[in-house]
Amino acid sequence: LDDGILTIEIDHPPVNALALPVRAGLLAAMQAARTDARVQAVILQAAGRTFVAGGDIGEFAEPAMIDPHNNHVFAAMEALDKPIVAALHGSVLGGGLELAMAAHYRVALPGTKLGLPEVKLGIVPGAGGTQRLPRLVGVETALKMMTSGQAVDAGQALTLGLIDELASAPLRDAALALARKAIEAQRAGQPLPIASRRAIDNDAAQGDRLEAWRRRLPAPERGGQAAHGVLQCVQAACSGNFERGLAIETEVFEALRLSPASLALCHVFFAEREAARIPGLARDIALRPVAKVGIVGAGTMGGGIAMNFVDAGIPVVMVEVSDAALQRGLGIVRANYEASAAKGRISAEQLASRMALLHGSLDYAALADCDLVIEAVFENLALKQQVCARLGAVARPGAIIATNTSTLDVDVLAAATGRAADVVGMHFFSPANVMRLLEVVRGAATAPPVLATVMKLAATIGKVPVVSGVCYGFIGNRMAEVYLREAEYLLMEGASPARIDRVVEDWGMAMGPCRMIDMAGVDVAAKTVIEATLEGKLGADPSYRAVVRRLHELGRHGQKTGAGYYRYEGRKAVDDPETARIVAELAARHGIARRSEISDAEIFERLLYPLFNEGLKIVEERIAYRAGDIDVVWTAGYGFPAHRGGPMWAAGQIGLRRIAERLAHYGRERGNAYGYWTPAAAAAAA
Ligand code: 3HC
Ligand code: NAI
C-alpha cells in the first residue's frame, strides 16, 4: 500500500496460472482492499515474464474444481467499490483475460497478447469470458476471438475497447497514472465501469446472425464441440442477464471439461512441451551459438527452410551448384514474401529486411563462418555423402552439420563428414516455412549439446521439435508407410479412394491417404517406395504399394497432372473409373480377392490399427522417447485430429487389447507372411 494505492502482485511461475493458491490469494487481497479504509484504488499486476496466462490446465482433469472458484473471486472484484486497474504484459490468455476483464480498467504494454484460447483445449472460457467479452468488444468480435482461440495484440485490443490504454511509459507508471485518474473520476461521481453490467448489443437480427455462425463452425463431432459451446454461451449472454449467462457458461464448461476431446487436447498441449525435453540431458547444458545458418541446395526444401531462419532474424547463406538453380531458389523465396506482403501479412520494410538477410553463393567457402549448415540436396546417398564430406571439411570446428534427408541413414551421412558428433538430422516438412513439425534425428554419435542446441533453435523458429532415433522413415513416415500400405490393399480389394478417404476424414483426419498422395505427388511417393524397395528397406512383398507404382508408371502423378488416385476437375477430386480399372487389374495380377462389401469399420481398423501398432513398436525400440512424442509428430505434422489426442492417445482410448484382437483377426483373414499383423509387445501383452 503506497499513497492510497494497493498493489496486488501475482507471482506464481512459470506463467502465473490461476491455480488454487492464486485464487485464494486474490480473494484475500480483495477482502483486505475492501476493509482497509486507506485503500483508494488497486493495481493488479503480475511478476515475471507475463501476466496470468490462463487457468491452471493441470487442474482441469480434477473431478471437481476446487473453491474458491474464479467466478467467486471475480465477483468480489466487481463488488469492490474502489477502482481496480489491471496492468498487463506478456500473454493475457484464458483465465488471465477473464481476470483482467473483471477489473474496472485495463492498461497493457505494447506487444501484449490478449485472447481466450480455450477452444484449443476443447473447453469454453469458464470464468465469465463468454459473458464479459461480448459486452466489451461486441458479439461478432467476441465470437470471432473465442471460436478461433486467436489472440489479439495490445494495439488491436485498444481499438476493440478491450483495454483502456496502451502504456507508453513503463507499465508500472502507466498503471499508477490510470489509478489516479480513476480515483478522480470516482470522486467526481462517475460510477465504476463494470464489464458484467454493460449492455450487450442485441437486436431483432441477432438470432439470424448467431444461426449464421452456427453454420460456419466445424461440426461438434469433428472437433467443433467447444466452438458450439461458445456459441451457446454467447446466445445466453445476448439475453442480457449476466447471472443466467454465467450459470449456462458454467454448465457448458463443466460438460466439456472432462470430455474426451478436451482431455485429448490438454494431453497434446503438455505432450508438445514434454517433447522438447531430452531425457538424461541437463536442462542447463551449454548450447552452441547459432548466429548464422548455411543451407546447401536451394530447392523446394532449402528455400522454405531458409525462410524460417530469416523470419527469426538469423542470416542465411544458400549454396547451389549453378547460378540458374540459385537464382530460381532465391526467386521463389522472394515471391513467397511478396505474396505475404500483398496480403498484408508482412510490411514492405519486413520484406526488404528479410531478403537482406538472405544471400546466395556457388562456393562452399561461403559456409565457413556458419554455425549451422543444413544440407537439402537431392535425396541420393552418393551425392549426400559427397556433400557431407565437403561440409565436414569446410564448416568451422564446433559448427553443427544437419541433414534434411527423409529416407537415408543419418549415421551413414554423419560418418561421411568425418565429425559425426557434430551431425544431426533436421527433418523439415513441406512447405518448410509453414509446417510446424520438425523431427530432430539423433544419430548414434550426435553430441548432446548439438541435440540440445537444435531443439532450442527449433523453438526460436517457431517449430514443434520431436526427437527421433535413426530408422527408415523416422517416426512420422515410418508410421505413414503402414497406413498407406493398407489404403492400397483396400483399393485393390474394391474400396474406392473417396470411400477410404471419407472414413478417416469423418473421424477427423485433415485429409485421407489418397487425396494426400495426390497432393504431395504420386511421382514423389512412388520414387521413395521404389528406392526403398531396391535397398531392401521395405521387405519382399511383390504387391507392396503396387498402386502408387502403377499410377506413377502411367504418368498419373496426382493433382498436378490432373489425375492420380482421383481425376481432377480444377482442384476438385472426383472418383475416376480408370482408377477402379487399374486397381482391379493389379488385384488380379497379385491374386488379391475382390469383395463387393467392405465396411467402414474395416476401413478404419485396417488403416489405423497398423499405424497405432507401428507407433507402439517405435516406443519399444526407443526410436521415440515417449508415446506422447508420437502424438506430437502426428498432430503437428500429419493432420491427425488433435481432439483425438494423437495416435498413441487414441490407441489408449480404444484399448490395446481390442487393437491386438483386431490385428490378429486381419492376420488370420489376410495372412501374415510379411509380419504386417504382428502385434507390438505392448499390444500382445494387453
Ligand atoms: N496452466 C498450466 N501450466 C501452464 C499453462 C497453463 N495455463 N500455460 C503454460 N503452462 C506451463 C507449461 O506447461 C510450461 O511448463 P514446463 O516448463 O513445466 O513445461 C511452462 O508453463 C511454460 O510454457 P511454454 O513452454 O508454453 O512457454 P512459452 O513461453 O513458449 O509460452 C504461453 C507461454 C504463451 C503462455 C503458452 O504456455 C500458452 O499458450 N499457454 C496456454 C495458454 C492457455 O491456453 N490459457 C488458457 C487456459 S484455459 C483457461 O484459462 C480456462 C479458464 O477459462 C477457466
Ligand atoms: P529439390 O530437388 O527441390 O532441391 C534440391 C536442390 O539441391 C536443387 O536445387 C539442386 O540444384 C541442389 N543441389 C544438388 N546437388 C547439390 C550440391 N552438390 N550442392 C548444392 N546444391 C545441390 O529437392 P527437395 O524436395 O528440396 O528435397 C531436398 C531434400 O529434402 C531431400 O533430401 C528430400 O528427401 C528432403 N525432403 C523433402 C521433402 C519434400 O516434401 N520435398 C520433405 C522432407 C524432406
In words, what does this structure look like?
It is a single chain. With 686 residues, the protein is of the alpha/beta class. The protein has 28 helices and 18 strands. The strands form 4 sheets. The chain has an 8-stranded mixed beta sheet, with helices on both faces. The chain has a 5-stranded parallel beta sheet with strand order 1-2-3-5-8, with helices on both faces. Strands 4-6-7 form a 3-stranded mixed beta sheet. Helix 5 runs antiparallel to helix 9, helix 15 (381-394) crosses helix 16 (410-417) and helix 18 (476-493) packs antiparallel against helix 24. The structure holds 3-hydroxybutanoyl-coenzyme A and 1,4-dihydronicotinamide adenine dinucleotide. Residues 14-15, 17, 53-58, 70, 91, 93-95, 98, 117-118, 121, 125-127, 129, 273 line the site of 3-hydroxybutanoyl-coenzyme A.
Q: Identify the strand order in the major beta sheet.
A: 11-10-9-12-13-14-15-16
Helical proportion? 40-55%
**Helix run count:** 28
**Morphology:** globular
Mean pLDDT: 96
Beta percentage is 5-15%
Largest sheet: 8 strands, mixed
* Through-space gap between termini: 61 Å
**SSE-based structural type:** alpha/beta
Low-confidence stretches: none
Topology, number of strands: 18
What molecules are bound to this protein? 3-hydroxybutanoyl-coenzyme A, 1,4-dihydronicotinamide adenine dinucleotide
User: Radius of gyration from the CA trace?
Assistant: 28 Å
